[in-house]
Amino acid sequence: MDKENLKKNMLLGMGNPLLDISAVVDKSFLTKYGMKENDAILADEKHKNLYTELVEKYNADFIAGGSVQNALRVAQWLLEFPKVTTFFGCVGDDKYSKILCDKARENGVNVQYQVNSKEPTGTCAVLITGTHRSLCANLAAANLFTIDHIAKEENKKLVDTAHFYYVSGFFLTVSPPSIMEVAKVALAHKRPFLMNLSAQFIVQFFKDPLMQVMPYVDVLFGNETEAETFATEQSFGTTDLKEIALKICELPKQYEDRPRLCIITNGHKPVIMAHEGKIREFPVTVLEKDKIVDTNSAGDAFAGGFLSQYIQGQDLEICIKCGIWAATEILQRSGCTFSGKASFTP
Ligand code: 26A
User: Fold this and answer.
1) Other residues' Cβ atoms within 10 Å of the Cβ of residue 266
2) Catalytic annotation present for 294
3) DSSP for 164-199?
């Protein structure tokens, strides 16, 4: 791979740094906590005991998580060159933040956390049933991220000098002003701003801030359920994923000279890409069921793989193929974990 275009801190990501507490459970455990397979939700009162129960009764694993941080770690794995990516998010001052920070730095991410000791570092329960995963995030300190962090001189510089920006829809639950600020910097410099829909509840209950940022979004990622829910919420009048992707591209856009790209992953079915009024489909590697460890972070890995090529100016086809490659790797591991050298060849 030709890496001569890579620069330090060229990709800036913002999101919720979370430590995943992952365990295999049975469906009755999901029911007990009012959760569904393949969902992602925010914890409330009824999930208070979920985390201790997972650790004490289910022998849970602790794995570095947080959607954007996962994507950046995967991108770094593919890029090899350290600190191409920078990450902003808020953590507590505790041992979990140290685990998260060490892991992300070991993978080459330039981690610049805001630290707030009023809350512990956020966690995410990952409940595995068969090949499905259900996520329940207790954001804690992650929820305390403020725009002040971006305004700090050294961080402002990182925002101003990045060439690409990636945020999750999840981060709309925390700091829409920070997202808008970064989106506006991206626009002012005509640099690509990429976003992920992240979860159905974002599309449903954070519709207003989502649609406020949409005109700034150059590349939108989502999976099939998020896309379908988006279409319902926006009264698109179709459930066809290709039509939905095309309609997303046509939503109002600030910088019209760069047509929006919309990428919808669809489980084992081909990835759908809409761009400039056209659809392309990319088959995925269909793994045998017994090869899939869990689907936790597969979507993040897809985004990370895509980003690793996109920031090098690769053709979209290569970007998508790398996304598929990375997702296939992560499906065969527990959570967002990997080791050794990434073996993707364009
Ligand atoms: C605001 N919410 C709900 C979240 C998340 C989240 N990351 C940020 N914000 N809920 C789950 N995750 C992360 O998603 C990854 C899998 O895609 C989990 O930490 C997990 O690593």
Assistant:
1) 15
2) no
3) EEEEEGGGGGT-HHHHHHHHHHHHHTT--EEEE---
Report mean pLDDT in 10-residue bins for the chain, 346 residues: 81 97 94 92 94 93 95 96 97 96 95 98 95 94 98 97 98 98 98 97 98 98 97 98 98 98 96 98 92 89 98 97 96 88 89
Tokens of 262: 């919309």
Interface pTM (ipTM) of the complex? 0.96
Judged by DSSP in three states, 64 sits in: strand
| Best probe residue, ligand 1, of 67, 133, 198, 300 (max atoms within 8 Å of C-beta) | 67
Q: What is the pTM of this model?
A: 0.97
Domains and CATH numbers, the chain: 3-17+66-120+139-331 (3.40.1190.20)
Angstrom distance (rounded) from CA 249 to CA 243: 10
What stretch of H or E contains 285? none
**What do you get for the CA distance between the two ends of the chain, in Å?**
8
Give, using CA atoms, the residue closest to atom 21 of ligand 1: 65
Pairing of strands 132-138, 40-42: parallel
The alpha carbon of 36 is separated from its chain's Cα centroid by a whole number of angstroms, namely: 20
